Amino acid sequence: MEMNSNPLDGLKAVQASRIRDGFLLAPLNGHTTTSGIKMDAQREDIDNLTRLRDRLLETGTTSTTTTIRDYNNQFHTVTVAQLSEIVGELVDFGLGLYARKWELEQALAAAASERDVLAVVW
Questions:
Q1: How many Å apart are CA 14 and CA 117, to the nearest integer?
Q2: Handedness of CA 67, 69, 73, 77 (dihedral sign)
Q3: Of 17, 19, 14, 7, nearest to 122 (Cα)?
Q4: CA 99 to CA 34: how far, in whole Å?
């Protein structure tokens, strides 16, 4: 077994794992939309809302309302336009998580000291 010649590599691996954990856990806390509704924000949740919105749009039911359930299992009646806004915000939230993860991974790769590595946190 080869010994690690760079002590920062091990520390970077630990921090990289913490970044991955932060990235994976962030959607579990949900996301509060600008309409004040806190929604589940995992990929499956976003996909389900997107399919609901798309189905409403393809069937021409844009002038009616539908019911959705939020992060706290409370029901909300929303229009298709409001649903589209919620979906868009959730997609943007997910994309923002990826952007933050990539930014932190780049900072971690560039870190040249223990202090620099430890400063890269989710």
A1: 10
A2: negative
A3: 19
A4: 20
* CA dist 48 → 41, 51, 57, 77, 79 (Å): 11, 5, 14, 16, 16
Give CA–CA dist 42/80, Å, rounded. 21
| Global confidence as pTM | 0.85
Cα(42)–Cα(25) distance, integer angstroms: 9
Contacts of 42 (CB under 8 A, 6+ apart): 27, 28
pLDDT score at 2: 54
Pairing state between β 38-39 and 31-32: antiparallel
Q: Summarize pLDDT for 67-118 with one digit per residue, the tens.
A: 999 999 999 999 999 999 999 999 999 999 999 999 999 999 999 999 999 9
The two three-digit tokens of residue 35, written as one number: 């309409």
**Residues facing 69 on adjacent strands:** 75
**Which residue intervals of 26-79 are DSSP H helices?**
43-58
